[in-house]
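Please predict the structure of the following assembly.
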Amino acid sequence: MTALARGIGSRLGQAIGLLLAVVVVVFFLIQIAPGDAALYLAGEQGVGDAEFLAQVRAEYGLDRPLLAQLWTYVVNIAQLDLGKSTYFEEPVLGLILDRLFATVVLAGSALLFAVVVGVAIGVFTARRPESPASSLVTATSLVGFSTPVFYSAVMFIVVFAAKWGLFPVGGIEDVRYQGNWIGESIDFLQHLVLPALSLGIIYLAYYSRLARASMLEVLESDYIRTARAKGAHERIVVYKHALRNAVIPVITIAGLQVGNLLSGALLVEVVFSWPGIGRLAVNSIFRRDSPTLLGIMIFSSAMVILANLLTDLVYRLVDPRIRVGGSR
Amino acid sequence: MNESGIAVEKLKTNDRGAMRMFLRNKAAVVGLVVFVFILLVTIFGPSLYGTSANKMVSRPFLAPSDDLAPLLGTDYLGRDILAGVVGGGRTTLLVAAVAAAMTMTIGIVIGSLAGYFGGWVDALLMRVTEIFQVMPTLLFSLVVIFLLGPGTRNETLAIGLTLWPLAARLARAEFLRLRELDFVKAARAIGCNDLRIMVRTILPNAMPPLLVSATLTIVIAILFHAGLAFLGMVDVNTVSWGSMLGKNRGYALTAWWTVFFPGLAIVITGLSVSLIGDGLQDAFNPKLRGR
């Protein structure tokens, strides 16, 4: 158990170091960007003489050495201060937290759908490797890999929302259900279906193929042959012995892909007017609201790091070989 | 140089085997044919078709079934959808190709150094790779474009800077594996220096998986550029499949053809490259040879 604790401790330290590195990268990206922040800020107020520029520089600390500026930046972020939005004139962190729930629900349900259904399809086809269903999975996963998520999202709206009227076209809630929590919940779920499906279906294609490959490999292994030889029921062999090991790569990849998932969620949020942090990021670009955009960048990197950390933890708990060995 | 002569000879026969495997794979050949067709249409199509993708040719929102409409209908400004589909691949394919080349170059340089030298070089380079891996890809390229401004050069840079970690990890794994093999030891024993071993001895043998990864990178870069165009982050005067989708999506409820065909062009292009990649993977896999 101490080895596990030490393993987690060292991973935690690495995670913090990684986040610090992201902050430094973002800081230097701002530095190499063309243009002068003071000139821009002064321009906003319609004044451009040298004296005023110097005043702006002093006010924002832009006259200080680069490393001193970096230090302030890092210390502020360590104190959970991501700066103030130039558009909302509010702390960026608050803006992000207000929209975090929407993004997490969208990305989470898409991921859950993709992993659960993907593993089910993978197991089903792995037991029948030469069947048409198996080739269908391979073909669909190739199409899924080549389909932009914003295309599936727009076409879903065209078919399921506009043509058949099954689901709302966008947004997250309907005013008519306000105050009635049962109605509100159903309404929320109805709004969630299409965005989560259009995001999840891309990953479904991917995970079903991954689960199929990993299941095929596991079913070939010695311990499965042993289980069968000792007369275990086929259902127990597949669902108890094989599935447990076959799921590990799917969990690993799913955990490592949280960054991609957030990128996909960003596009889906834009298409469905889903009020999450991805849509805020895109809107911030059009508003030239750099503190918000960069704040989201750092915040979502932290989310990815956290997800990787959790995956690592789950992985250690699921697979005893890693628990004992510590590192590869 | 007798020894290296033998090596070259052997590589050629291997390549021919892989080529035969590839050509026997129907899906891969279809992918290749379709991709070549798309390339030809993209290069020569606009001048052959004659209508500019930016020109208003008719009334807005003419459905493909309408008598007055061009083959695939018109968009919200009365522009010919087919003209957009024919010419809309230009920037996307160009940016994707250059970005993929950039991705592979950065990835191979970093991955090969890390895998070949190991130790602190490996630890340092992999830490750097990790930094780029935890930043959500699309968000990072949006930030790059936001800070550097739009334009083909910056778009390419934004995509290339985000996608390289995967290639780096792959190249590292290959170099780690190959550097322990006898022929590398032999090269070292006859006095080849590190650079020569990396470039002439290991790299050719690491090429097959890297080539497969390059095709996948092209697909991802195509989707990436289409996504940036969709969000309106690229040069607004260039019509591309992604930007057609982005600008018409507000009207998609009533005029499905304005988004359906540009999107289909992206899917078919991506799929053709994926099929080529899949074929290459099978062709390079010795387990499947001679089947």
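The CA atoms of residues 103 and 163 of chain B lie 6 Å apart. Chain B touches chain A at residues 127, 130-131, 133-140, 142-144, 146-149, 219, 223, 226-227, 230-231, 233, 242, 245-246, 249, 252-254, 256, 259-260, 263, 266-267, 269-271, 273-275, 278 (CB under 8 Å).
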